[in-house]
Structures are given as C-alpha cells and as structure tokens.
TrEMBL record:
<dbReference type="Pfam" id="PF13473">
    <property type="entry name" value="Cupredoxin_1"/>
</dbReference>
<feature type="domain" description="EfeO-type cupredoxin-like">
    <location>
        <begin position="39"/>
        <end position="89"/>
    </location>
</feature>
<protein>
    <submittedName>
        <fullName>Copper-binding protein, plastocyanin/azurin family</fullName>
    </submittedName>
</protein>
<dbReference type="InterPro" id="IPR028096">
    <property type="entry name" value="EfeO_Cupredoxin"/>
</dbReference>
<dbReference type="GO" id="GO:0046872">
    <property type="term" value="F:metal ion binding"/>
</dbReference>
<keyword id="KW-0186">Copper</keyword>
<keyword id="KW-0479">Metal-binding</keyword>
<dbReference type="InterPro" id="IPR050845">
    <property type="entry name" value="Cu-binding_ET"/>
</dbReference>
<dbReference type="InterPro" id="IPR008972">
    <property type="entry name" value="Cupredoxin"/>
</dbReference>
<keyword id="KW-0732">Signal</keyword>
<feature type="signal peptide">
    <location>
        <begin position="1"/>
        <end position="28"/>
    </location>
</feature>
Amino acid sequence: MSKTLPNLLRISLLAGFTTIAAASAAFASPGHGLPFGEAAKAEQATRTVTITMRDNLYEPESLTVKPGEIVRFILVNKGELLHEFNIGTAAMHAKHQEEMAMMMEHGMLTPTGMNHDMSKMDHSKMGGMSMGDMKHDDPNSVLVEPGKTAELVWKFTKPTELEFACNIPGHYEAGMAGPIKFAK
C-alpha cells in the first residue's frame, strides 16, 4: 500500500471523517455527490420524512424513495444514547463503522454525546496531528444527541442498494439499520 492512502485516510478523519466511496477513495463533501446522490437544500425538498431514533431502532424501519427525489429528513432522538443517521451502501457503513470506533476510542464521541472540548485530550495516538478540527460532517450523515433534533436533506439520484444506519459502535450490529428501496 502506498504512503498516500494512509495519509488520505488520516486527512479524511481529521477533516470530517469523510466516508470513502468504493475503491476510488472519492471524498463526500457538500457540493460533491456520491454515486447514489448528493446533499440538497431544504427548500428543494419534495417530501419531508420524520425519523425517530430510539435505543437501538428507527421509526419507520424502512424507506421508499424515487430517483431524483429530494427528501428532507427530520431526525428526532428519543433515546438515551447518541445516534447517527447515515445514508450509504453496506460497504460504506462497514468502513464508516471503523472511523466511528476510532472517534469513540479517541474520546471525540461518548455513548451519549459529542466531546466538544478536544483541547484536554491526548492527541499523541493520532500521529501527532491535532484533533481540534475533527468534525462529523459528511453530507450523507448526521449525529443526534439524546433529546435533540437534526436535519439532513438528500437528493437520491441513482437507484442503488442503500440503507440508513447508525454506525456508533454496536448500534448497527444491534439492528439499527433499515433499507432504502427505490420506487419503480
């Protein structure tokens, strides 16, 4: 493996834990889409869907979308734990779970929230790089602390085998995922 890929992964973690799509290592960021869609603005939404997050399930348990549809997701965490709403393929979720585990290991995330005070942490295990700019800001993903509400707006461009999932360590494995089906 070249030195470039590990450096790109570290940059990805430090610049927002950007999900790496497929083997091309394409980065997902606002203004850039993924093979199945892209971030959109709330005023462009053609439908609003409220997703309730509980410990460890979503209501509703599945979604159906149309190609080209822009959905405004209102994400309400009624659980006791921090949860994530992430749109992706099973392979993307597997990769993102590794990143989320690292975020937990380094104290950025706790079972119930985000550590907004990174200045007191030991950053030496991250190869001497500062973790001060770490954010969980992928356009296809949002973290929601207990009792909070968040929003994610997504344009579904290409029918793909997708699911929405919580990639907080242990949550996906406990069943906190649901399929996204494309209407014909």
